[in-house]
Amino acid sequence: MTEIPTPSVPDFWGRAYTAEGITVYYNRRRCIHFAACVRGLPQVFDTQQRPWIQPGRADAAAVAEVVRRCPTGALHYVLPSGPPELSAPTTIDVRENGPNFLRGDLTIASPESADPAGTIRDTRAALCRCGQSGNKPFCDGTHRQVGFQAPGGQS
To answer: What backbone torsions phi and psi does residue 86 show, to the nearest 5 degrees?
Structure first.
């Protein structure tokens, strides 16, 4: 049996969940429970199960498509026999009462106290707008607890 080499992935992608044809990575510090994954494939992303990510419960291409919906960069994937996740045109979605969701070929400089720290390259990120995140510049969902209110962008 020939083992397919797994491309190296950044440490900040987090814990790996592997199934035939795909590995999904999850960084809980970047998750703000937007739940695009749970809504997209509840049989794969099920918070009532352990492990809560079971990528073998759906086709690898479908899992990858749902992972790309994650606006925070908490989820990433590798398809050992397929294309890497590519960046989309750069966009910023200013969410009403919430963070800025960025997509594109991103370079983010964050302090050593952040997770991830330093200069990172990514395709998606949720950046704090309320100023209260414990993981700045990344949003950690604190805006909900502090009652942050601000208008969002155009729909």
So the answer is: -105, 150
